[in-house]
Every structure is written in C-alpha cells, then in structure tokens.
From TrEMBL:
Organism superkingdom: Bacteria
Protein name: Siderophore-interacting protein
A GO term for molecular function: oxidoreductase activity
Coiled-coil annotated residue ranges, if any: none
PROSITE patterns linked to this entry: FAD_FR
A UniProt-annotated Pfam family: FAD_binding_6
Limits of the FAD-binding FR-type domain: 16-114
Amino acid sequence: MISKIPKWVGDLFGNAMRPNVKVLETSYISPQVKKIRFQGDISKWSFQIGYASVVRVSETEFRNYTVAYHDTKNGIFDIVFHIHGQGVGSKYIGTLQTNDELFISPPRGKILYDPSVKQQFFLGDETSLGVACALFLLLKKNNHQFQFYFELVEQNKSVPELLGLENFTVFPKNGSFRNEKWTSNLPLFKTEEWNAANFALVGNVKSVQTFRKVLKSKTQGNVYSQGYWLEGKKGL
C-alpha cells in the first residue's frame, strides 16, 4: 500500500475512504506506546497474523498498523501504536481521543504464522507489539511452545509485561541485532531444540535482515519476515 497519494486522488475516492470506525477508549502503556480500542463494522474483515490495516492519518498520508485484538461479534478491535518523533502518523495518533472518527481499512498483507508448527519464535520491536499480541493469543490457544525476542528502548522495556505477554526476552535497542556475530551467540542458537521452529521476524529492516541471515545458516525452520520501518524512509 502506498503511503502517500495526491490530494485529488483522495478526493476522488473520498466516499470509499470516509471515516468508518470510532475511538472507544485510549490508554498509554508507556509514553511512546498508545493502545486504542475502535468500534466499527468489521464483520467482513480477515484477521490473519501478519496482516495490517491502513490508517488515514491526513488528507494524503496513510500508515500501516496491525490489529492486536479483535472481537468481530461486538465490532471492536485494538491497535497498539508506537508514537515517536514528529512524523505525521505519530502526531495524528497522538491526538486521537474518545469518539473521534477515522478511516481504517480491512487488514491485508503477508501471513507470518503456521499453526502446524509446534515451536514458534518471534522477533520484533516497538512497531511489532500489536502483531505480537495477536500472535500470543493464538499461541496460547493452540498450545504452542514459543519465545519472543524484543529490542526496545529503555522506557519501553516493561511494555511486553504490561501487555500481558509471556516467554519474552527484552534486549536494549543499541544496534546489536544488526551484528551477525553477536546474533549468532544468542541463547536461541545454543541448542538444537529450536532448529525446526517457525520464525517470524518483524520490525526494523536491518535487524530483520541480519537475523534472517543467521537463521538461514543455523536452522532448518521456516522463516517469515516483514520489515516495518527503515531509518530515513517514510511510510514503509
């Protein structure tokens, strides 16, 4: 999905992109992590692990976010947003409050979860917390063995616990996951137990690329990856 369109295109498809959901409640998990519950007609939406919804953040700008929880019967869903810097998406999400209305598209994208594999591993950062929450619910329901690795800044290190996640390890966001040698020495690679796991890698493009390369050289499992952001690039 493109992240920006000319205003005349937005006006042309205005009816299709008119507000379709309403904010029910908001809360801050940390100063940079905001959870919002929305309500709308989601009866025809497909919620697959790895899918993302497009949020219209201005007349011409759109950003992708992952639904963390949904209840189709009651028409509600949650998104966990990473708010940082002065980007148009962060500023817009930061202003949302109860009863605001906006456009959010049905989820679509790339599936990251294979339910047939007993062992599941997930790598992510602040931008990946929503998909981690959605995945966690399925992992518990289907009795998987699982591990989460998160690279987070100091003020967000308690967020996974506050979101109710389990079996996670938090690493400081200091660039280590871009170092192949350092990554190769992680506990995950010290045993053959996880050799055939399902690996889902999301978040920073460079971290994902490095981790994927190490996985390919050390394991036989299936690797699913999706870069959510890259330094210097808007609207990835």
